[in-house]
Design goal:
Elements (H helix, E strand, L loop, with lengths): L7 H35 L6 H20 L7 H20 L14 H5 L13
Helix pairs in contact: 1-2, 1-3
Length: 127
């Protein structure tokens, strides 16, 4: 191979583009995951197989991409900080519950969010 003929600048752009695509996929699945976890917790009477499937699928997709792209892992907390407020607003719109129903900051850490055995319980209502 003629390494001198390699277009390093173009190659670097392609590698960066692939990384951006993987990061976008992770954030997209994380946004959906957060939305459905909020709905799961705050609308327990509306839980469905669709939500269960969506939560599981998002977790699987995120895990697959993180395994193949471990460089994304250090940015997960930053993604969470950006995406949670959006998921909170979308949950309010989709449920018609007051925005104050949903905590201002994410009540779960990334390890819980991505844990396939984690399912948030509904909040306890005081009599």
């Amino acid at each position: 191979m003629d390494w001198g003929a390699l277009d390093v600048e173009h190659l670097a752009e392609e590698v960066e583009s692939l990384g951006n695509e993987q990061e976008h996929a992770v954030t997209s699945h994380l946004r959906i995951l957060l939305l459905h976890l909020l709905k799961w917790r705050y609308q327990p009477d509306k839980r469905s197989k669709s939500w269960t499937s969506s939560i599981g699928n998002a977790r699987d997709e995120i895990e697959d991409r993180l395994v193949r792209n471990p460089g994304i892992c250090p940015r997960l907390d930053g993604f969470l900080a950006t995406l949670y407020p959006r998921a909170r607003r979308r949950a309010q719109r989709e449920t018609s519950l007051p925005l104050a129903t949903f905590p201002e900051t994410c009540p779960w850490g990334m390890s819980q969010i991505l844990d396939e055995d984690f399912w948030p319980d509904p909040p306890h209502v005081q009599p």
